[in-house]
Structure formats: structure tokens, C-alpha cells
Amino acid sequence: MNDTVPAKVLLSAGVQARIDGQELASRLRKETTGEVLFDRASRGRYATDASIYQIEPIGVFVPRLEEDVAIALELARGARVPVLARGAGTSQCGQTVGAALVLDNSKYLNGIIAFDKEAMTVTVQPGIVLDHLNAWLKPHGLWFPVDVSTAAQCTLGGMAGNNSCGSRSLYYGNMVHNVLGIDAWLADGVCASFGPLETMRAGAAPRVRALIDTVAAVAAREHEEIAARYPKVLRRVGGYNLDIFNPQSERPYTLDGSVNLAHLLVGSEGTLAYSRRLTLKLAPLPKAKSLGIVNFTNFSKAMDSTQHIVKLGPVAVELVDRTMIELALSNPAFRPTVEKALIGKPDAILLVEFAGLDKAEQDRKLKDLSALMGDLGLPGSVVEMANEAEQKALWEVRKAGLNIMMSLKGDGKPVSFIEDCAVPLEHLAEYTDRLTEVFAKHGTRGTWYAHASVGTLHVRPILDLRRDGSAKMRAIAEEAASLVRQYKGAFSGEHGDGLVRSEWVDWQFGQRMMGAFCEIKDAFDPDGLMNPGKIVRATKMDDRSLYRFKPGYAEQPLRTSLDWSAWNVQADPVTEAVGAPGTGGDASGGFAKAIEMCNNNGHCRKFDSGTMCPSYRVTKDEQHLTRGRANTLRLAVSGQLGPDALTSDAVAESMDLCVGCKGCKRDCPTGIDMARMKTEFLYHYRKRHGLTLKDRLVANLPRYAPWAARLAPLMNLRDRLPGAAALSEKWLGLSAKRSLPRWRSDTFLSSAPASTHVAAGAPEVVLFADTFNNYFESDNARAAFRVLQAAGYHVHVARAPDEPRPLCCGRTYLAAGQVDEARQEARRTIDALLPYVARGVPVVGLEPSCLLTMRDEFLAYGFGEEARRLAESAMLFEEFIAREAKAGRLNLKLKALPQSTALLHGHCHQKAFDAVKPVEQVLGLIPGLAVKLIESSCCGMAGSFGYEARHYEVSMKMGELSLLPAVRQAGPDTLIVADGTSCRHQIADGAQREAVHVARVLEAALA
Ligand SMILES: Cc1cc2nc3c(=O)[nH]c(=O)nc-3n(C[C@H](O)[C@H](O)[C@H](O)COP(=O)(O)OP(=O)(O)OC[C@H]3O[C@@H](n4cnc5c(N)ncnc54)[C@H](O)[C@@H]3O)c2cc1C
Ligand code: SF4
Ligand code: SF4
Questions:
Q1: Is the CB of 266 under 6 A from ligand 1?
Q2: Rounded average pLDDT over 452-464
Q3: CB neighbours (10 Å) of residue 477?
Q4: Looking at ligand 2, which residue's alpha carbon is closest to its atom 6?
């Protein structure tokens, strides 16, 4: 990354413009209401999409109003600065990166402008996310059916830009078949409504009329060439849709055969115009669905059968191959779902979905499928899945396919460049066989999956683009292209052209059509300022200077505080066998390679489920998103943000709102663990900048806690003495709006016996009382003790053998980046607990963030086998009780409670470790108690985060996303259950309700 805004910009191959980025930035600040992000780190965060490329933009602008876009386009035009519209930036081909002013529509320009239920149409702004639109439409019984895999984050503007296609395109078509109109700004600032040709022509301004005439004339002139050159398949998204005048797609663009000029903008990747509003055709939500899973013992047979299956009229036929099946089976979350779909050990499965208004009809089609497979020589090969919840779960596994593959460690990655070639179904079997041979010839392999119904199978050969991968990429692309030509298919069948495939537009459509495309481009954008270098006048796909990992890219040497060696590996592209930890050649010991796992797919931008990423959910800023953080870190550790960038303010700002919830550790497809990365960052940052008084106060809490507890009345004065809270805000930065946890002098450990007295031979358990449940909420520890005792366990209480100070997991030190101190605490804890572990005694704890540290960070301190053994024995109280109950060993008599419902909020770390279900199971043991889980992300308190004055607002906003409203809605007779100390405080502060630990609920229910 350059220190200053670049002065020269490549507009398209060979053409350069001089620009003054600083002046542009200052005018944008003065003349618009949008956010102007021209600093180095922000530009770095917008330099990548989900492709292999990285190009530094001139600046980033986040328009608040439509007028802001108009002004920005005008200013950019005046400065001869290219413009690049952006939605979620999930494109795989590099069409969303460029040396341009990037305009991010996703934060503010995401409204629904008009809706006509009868006509089944909606008009939206370009930044609206597909899932959000569909959630809004659901109560009306409608949806927008272009169901791309990235539905949770991709925007309608981006979908139109790419002519995106969903799994059910066989039935609903691609984006181009579902867009009715686009209001767009042209390069010269004119705003035009693109729609049916005749209507448009009638009301058009002279400039627009001239444009229409040019387009129509070029299309008429090229009538024959279009017929000769355009692939006759549904899935063709390369080049411009000049065939709207002479349709070549298997599916007509319009129902009445008329020309709609909005369709020319669809798939144009922002190179012709800037979409302001899109009018979309909606479809009724299917009322009934049935799913048949056809099991094949031979991959080719699956490919060959597809052409026959589509004749039954399914809405989708999707492939999952053996590798993907095995990857899914090895994932505990997916295994039970996948097992239900399998008959024996198939080589491939096809998911065949029928959908419509009538359930009986869909079920009949499912029977037809079984009969067809019998006719094709595969009787008994279909699993009929009627249950919609099971169907949905299986679709989730299919959608997760690519992401599962992307978790491969090392520099070799599955690369997207021929991943969506489309071939006619009759050639699918031969095409896949031959391409597989091509991969083998080049010493790699690919996993096949996705849209069999339309001949668009996804496949990504594993290539190391930092070494020999680039040459292999070109060689494979050339061989794949010749196969595609032989089978009369489309080289670009789903993901667009961008940087990786624009070079192939010429190859696909021929020089004459390429000339026509250039004429279209020039008519719309005479100065070449709209996303230059894409579709026409492209750079080479293997121009390594445009790669994310450019020649000379190197991780900077760094002595890390945590062990990252598991990422410091390389993998074999064919077997995917990973080398020994520490052998990957990363000068930062694996830290950089762990960061580089982020492939920018943007899954962390999802909103509606899971934990990831609360700070993005409340800010909608790329800077406060897992992806934005990973990119900032990657640029810093590879020296692209200047010297000592890891400890710079820019990195600190990006890390600031990360609450360490570990949502990404669980939800990110490639396992980005930003919480751990933040700890590593803080370690270096604090070493350079020192600790604040507040940091010291929080970090050292376990050390001074014994004294504080003795002086509890004095220590608690902060919340009683008038003005004390305000002073604590001024001096320590602790929000005066918060009450602090109250010290107790009757701590658990001060009165707990060393162990219980029970019958000889009783099963043993050791209870770990963390700092919070010992000093602040000792009733929880006492409750757990009583419950375990009542269930007949021989309960030991964990203590340090040689010193009075209680054991500690070290989390408060981690929060301040004091990894060495945290390591010391871990050492004490391991030493004290190992004798129990050696005897097979489970270690049971109460506070998720403390206990689960033993299963997470303890493994990164370099303690090897000892830490691993403790991790295997450490479990949360509810995990232990649920395990014992499942094994039929739990002897606990429970009675009904006065409350009949428990509303449960899972702590983020419980979610990250799949430990919420056990709480539900344990509460379910109480007679008559119904358990309702709140679909919540982080509560927002996150240790000391929410107590800090500068984070108070964000913290409350996180709570308000779903947790606090759900608690407020609960009746007074509903139990609120939350195992996290900080979650309980957030609930008390934000909803004025007391939440209790599950141990206390069980204690109250003891018969
Ligand atoms: C894991 C994964 C799975 C995917 N699965 C699918 C799939 O199933 N089907 C599919 O089709 N694609 C898929 N994609 C590709 C991508 O997600 C889609 O193309 C998506 O629709 C892009 O939306 P976006 O908001 O991220 O667009 P962006 O990447 O932000 O933009 C896409 C293009 O549109 C242009 N653009 C954006 N807004 C405007 C505007 N207002 N005016 C003019 N031009 C604009 C941009 O300049 C760019 O050229 C997948 C990608 C990933 C990483
Ligand atoms: S952090 Fe994870 S989910 Fe987000 S873009 Fe990177 S890889 Fe995808
Ligand atoms: S740890 Fe939580 S807040 Fe931080 S990046 Fe991951 S999901 Fe976002």
C-alpha cells in the first residue's frame, strides 16, 4: 500500500490518468453527507474482494444519500478518477477491486422504495442484502428467487452487477430474468430509467435516446455474429448481454419476447452505469417442497443422469461429490444431517428438489424420481426427504461446500478461475472426466459440487499462487477453455468476468463481438471511468502485480506470544495432507498464515443468525468486521501498512470494537479466530505503548481480589457515593452509567470444604471456582457445589496447593494483552488440576469465558501434552450434567419450579464451543419447564468492554440487537437464564431483569 493516495491510476490497459486524491477527499467531505475514507488502512480494506486480486483504491466513499452518489460521481468525473460501485464485495473474479473511488452502498443505501404485492414487484436501493429483502417479503408470501449461496450478505446491486444465479436458476432463471428495471446514473451524471425499450425510448432525454440508438444499431449490425457466437446455455454471464435483441439463452429474457434495456446493465459489473434503484420481479413462496437425494456409486453416472432428471421438472439439481461428503461427515455439526441422505458410501449425490403450491404433486414427482432412477439402472438409490427442517439442514451443508474446502491450511488454496464454466448437460459427464484428467496432469485436483441442473459445476483446483500456481492456472484455464468450446458451453457461467476472466471475453465471443462490446462501453462511458479494465480492455488474468500475494509478498518476522505453529504449514495439493506444525516457512511463526486464511468471502457480514460479528452488526463498517480486521492485520504483518504497523493506531482502531466473542472462530468458514488474534495484537501493542490504569485494574483483578473481598464494603462505595462513578469515568474510563460487579466478603472459597464426604467409590469431580463466581457471585459456585453433591458426586474444590490465592484462568490478563501473566496463571492452574486429570476426574467450571480458556488459549501457551490433557477433561457445569444424564448416570431428583418457562441466552464462548445445547438439555431435566433459546449474538458486555465509557454506546447497541428486546418481552414469571457473568450484568443494566446461572436454577429445583 502506498503511503499517499496514488497520483497515477491505470484506467484500462495502457491508459493512465493524473488525479489529485486529496482534493477529491476534501471536496467529498465538504459537499456530501457520506463517509470519506481515504486513509491507508481503509483503502487497504477495500483493496480485495473474494478473488485472488488486490488493487489499492484511490479512496473509499460511503454515501448516506442518493444525492451523495450523484455528487461523488460528478466530483470523480471532474478529477478524472474512475469509480467502482460496491455491495458486499463477495465477487470471486476481481470485478470489485480497482484503482478507483470505491463507493460502498451497503451501509446506507439499502432501502425498499416501492412494493406492489398484486403485481409482485419491488423497487430497492442497490445496497440491500438479499436475505434482508426476503425476510421483509416473507409475510407477504413472496420472495426474490435468485437464491445465491451468499444470500446472507450479497446485495441486490452486486447481484445485478454480476448477473448472479442461484441454486434454483433452472426454474427461476438468473438475475437477468428477474430484473424489470434499473434507474442508473450514466458516466456523465445523467440519471436514466432503464426498462422496456419502447417505453424508454418514448420518454428519453436526447443523450439517453442517442445511447439507445447506438446500442440498438450495434446489436442489429451484429445480429448474425450474436447468433453465431453466444453460447446457447442458460448460464452465460460473460461479456455484455447484447443478445437481448436476439436472445440466445435457453430461457427468454422477457415473457413476451420484448427487449428490456435494463438487461444490458445486468452483468455489466459496473462498467456501463451505476445502479441507483432496481425494480425486481418477485415469485410466490413455494408452499410445498420435497427433496430426493440420489446416491451414485459412480461420479460419471451422476453427471450422465442429470440430463434425464431435469425432465421431471425439479427446481434444483445440485451435486455433492465424495470429497465434499467426506468433509461434511468429518464435521460434527454436519454429520447427522449428511448421514440421513446417504445410502452406503456413494461417490456422489444429487439433491433434487421439487417445489410448488401443492404438496401431493411434489411428493408424486419424488416417486417419479425413484422410478426414473430404477429405469436408469439404479433402483433403490433415492432417499426421499419429506421433512422440511431436514431438507433445510441438508441445503445448508451444500451451501457450506465451498467454505468447507477453503479451510485448507498452507499457501496452496482452491482457486476460483474456471469454477463456473457451463456446458450442455449431455456433455457434463465427459467434461468433468476430462477436466479431472487436466488437473491430474498439472499435479493438482478439484472437488466438484453445485449446479448440475444447469451444467455449471463448481470446481477449484488447489494452486499455490505464490510459487508455481500462476503458470498452472493459465495452463489449466487454456485446457478448460478448449473443452468448453468443444462442448459449446460458456466459460463464465455464474461469477462474472472481473480480472480473472475478462481476458477470455475475446476468446469466447470473438474479436468482432469484442469490438462491439468496446463500442457499447465507449457509448456509455467515453472516458473509461466506470470500473475500467473489466469485461473490455482487460489486463491478463495472471498479471501477478495485481494478485493479493504479489511477487515479493512476505510475512514480516515476528516473535509471537502465542503458539501459531498449527498454521505454519503447507499442504499437498493432491492428498491435502498437511505438514508438521512450524514447517510452513512463515517468519511470524504462523500468525500471518492464520490471518491469511481469510479469503474475503464476506460470510462475516451476515446478520440474522450465529454470533459473528457483533461489532459489524451495530456499525456496518468494514473496519469493524472480521474480514476488515483480517485484511488490516494481513497488510500490517506483511509490511504493506508501513513499518511497525502491527502496533499502529490504524490496527488498534480496527481491533478496538472486537469483543473477543469467538463468533468468528465458530462461524467463519475458514476458522478465523479474531479473538485470539486480538490477544496477540494487544500483546505487541501494550509492549510498545504501555498499559493504561484501567488495563492494570482489570488485568490484575485476580491478584488483588483477596484484599478487595476483605474490604468489600469500601470497594463497593463507587456505586454508592455520589460523584464516585463520575470520577471513575474521568480517571479510569469506566462508564458512570454502569454499576460495577459487587464484591462479596463471603466468598465461595472462604467457606467451601476441600471436598465432600460421600460413600466410598462415589464418582469424583473437581469444581473450579473462577474469580467472578468466587468473589462477586459466590451463590453460583455454592449452588453448583450443592447440586453436584446432591447428585452423589465426590466434589473436590480446586485450589492452589501452596498458596492461598485462588486459581485463575488468566482471562483478565488476556484482555489486556498480558500474555506472559496469563501464561503464569495457566501454569498454576494446570499444575493444580493435573493430579485430578491424571485420575480421570472431570474439571467442572461455571463461567464460560474462564473454563473454556482451558480448552482454547491454554493450548496456545506452549504447554504441550499437559495442556491438551487438561483441555480434554475441562467442561462446563452444564456439559458435565448433560453428559452424565445422557449416560444414564445422573441421580438427581428435581421438582417443578414456580416458573414454567426459561428464556436462555447463551454466552458467546458457549456458542463458539457448541455448549449452549447442554444448558437447554439440563434445564429440560426440570419437570414442566419449557426452554426458549434467544437467537442472540454477543450481549455486548464482553468482559470489561461494556464497562468502558468509550464503548458504552456500542455495547448497549449490541445488547439491543436481540437480547435485551427478548428479555423485555418475557413475562415476570419467566426465568431468565444466562451463564456468563457479563451477560447477566448487561441484562440487569439494559432490561432491569435478574438473570441466573443454570446451577442456581438446578439448585432451586432440587427435590
Ligand atoms: C462463497 C461464495 C459463494 C458464492 N455463491 C454464488 C452463487 O451461488 N451464485 C452467484 O451467482 N454468485 C455467487 N458468488 C459470487 C457473489 O457472491 C455474487 O455474485 C454476489 O451476488 C455479489 O454481490 P455483492 O453485493 O458482494 O457484489 P459486489 O462484489 O460488491 O459487486 C459485484 C459487481 O457489481 C458491481 N456493482 C455493485 N453495486 C453496483 C451498483 N450500484 N451499480 C453498478 N454496479 C454495481 C460491482 O462494481 C461489481 O462489479 C459467491 C461468492 C462466494 C465468495
Ligand atoms: S473472516 Fe472468515 S467469514 Fe469473514 S471474509 Fe474472512 S474468511 Fe470469510
Ligand atoms: S471475535 Fe467476535 S467481535 Fe471479534 S471479529 Fe470475531 S465475531 Fe467479530
A1: no
A2: 93
A3: 22
A4: 598
- The string of pLDDT tens digits covering residues 698-721 is 999 999 999 999 999 999 999 999
Q: In angstroms, what is the span from residue 625 Cα to ligand 3's centroid?
A: 7
Segment 40-58 shows an average pLDDT of: 98
Which ligand approaches the C-alpha of residue 594 most closely?
Answer: 2
Please state the rounded mean pLDDT for residues 715-736: 94
Q: Is 674 in the pocket of ligand 2 (CB under 6 A)?
A: no
Please tell me the residue having the least CA distance from ligand 1 atom 11: 164
Gap between the Cα atoms of 529 and 9, Å rounded: 11
Tell me whether strands 316-321 and 449-451 are parallel, antiparallel or unpaired.
antiparallel
Res. 12: pLDDT tops 60: no
What are the strands, taking DSSP E only, across 19-160?
35-37, 59-62, 83-86, 101-104, 112-116, 121-124, 142-143
Ligand nearest to the CA of 158: 1
Confidence of residue 6 (pLDDT cuts 50, 70, 90): very low
Q: Which of 322-326, 370-374, 488-492 has the lowest mean pLDDT?
A: 322-326
Cβ(612) – ligand 3 distance below 6 Å: yes
Per-residue pLDDT at 3 exceeds 60:
no
For the segment 352-385, what is each residue's pLDDT rounded down to a tens digit?
999 998 989 999 999 999 999 999 999 999 999 9
Q: Please work out, in degrees rounded to the nearest 5, the angle formed at the alpha carbon of residue 989 by the alpha carbons of 988 and 992.
A: 50
600 CA → ligand 2 middle, Å: 5
Check if the beta carbon of residue 209 is closer than 8 Å to that of residue 497.
Answer: no
Given a contact cutoff of 8 angstroms between Cβ atoms, the answer to whether 145 and 155 are in contact is no
Closest ligand to residue 627's CA: 2
Ligand 1 pocket test target in 60, 62, 91 with most atoms within 8 Å of CB: 91
Which atom of ligand 1 is nearest to 159's Cα? 21
Tell me, in angstroms, the distance from the centre of ligand 2 to residue 565's CA: 20
Please name which of 632, 627, 638 lies closest in space to residue 651, comparing C-alpha atoms.
Answer: 632
Rounded to an integer, the average pLDDT of 167-182 is 96
Is there an atom of ligand 3 within 6 Å of 677 CB? no
For residue 153, the ligand closest to its alpha carbon is 1
pLDDT in tens, 834-857: 999 999 999 999 999 999 999 999
Residues 541-557: what's their mean pLDDT?
A: 97
- Strand-by-strand arrangement of the 121-124 sheet: 112-116, 121-124, 274-281, 179-185, 191-194
Helices (H), 294-358: 299-309, 322-329, 335-341
Sign for the pseudo-dihedral over CA of 803, 806, 812, 814: positive
Closest by CA position to 485, among listed 539, 424, 537, 536: 424
Question: Is 80 exceeded by the pLDDT of residue 459?
Answer: yes
Whether the per-residue pLDDT at 14 is higher than 70: the answer is: no
The HSE-up count of residue 175 (CA atoms within 13 Å, CB side) is 33
Q: Is 273 helix (H, G, I), strand (E, B) or coil?
A: coil
Strand segments (E) across 238-381: 274-281, 283-284, 288-296, 316-321, 348-356
Closest CA to 269 of 165, 161, 157: 161
Q: Whose CA is nearest to atom 17 of ligand 1?
A: 90
With H, G, I as helix, E, B as strand and everything else as coil, classify residue 50: coil
Task: Report CA(566)–ligand 2 centroid distance (Å).
Answer: 19
Atom of ligand 1 nearest to the CA of 164: 11
The whole-angstrom separation of Cα 567 and Cα 581 is: 7
Identify the pLDDT of residue 576. 86
Q: Which of 45, 149, 622 to mutate to test the pocket of ligand 1 (most atoms within 8 A of CB)?
A: 149
What pLDDT score was predicted for residue 86? 98
Q: Quick check: CB of 599 below 6 Å from ligand 2?
A: yes
Write out the three cell numbers for 917.
445445547
Estimate the crossing angle of helix 778-790 against helix 877-886, to 10 degrees.
20
137, 112 contact by CB (below 8 A): no
Residue 19 has a pLDDT of 57
Contact between 392 and 273 (Cβ < 8 Å): no
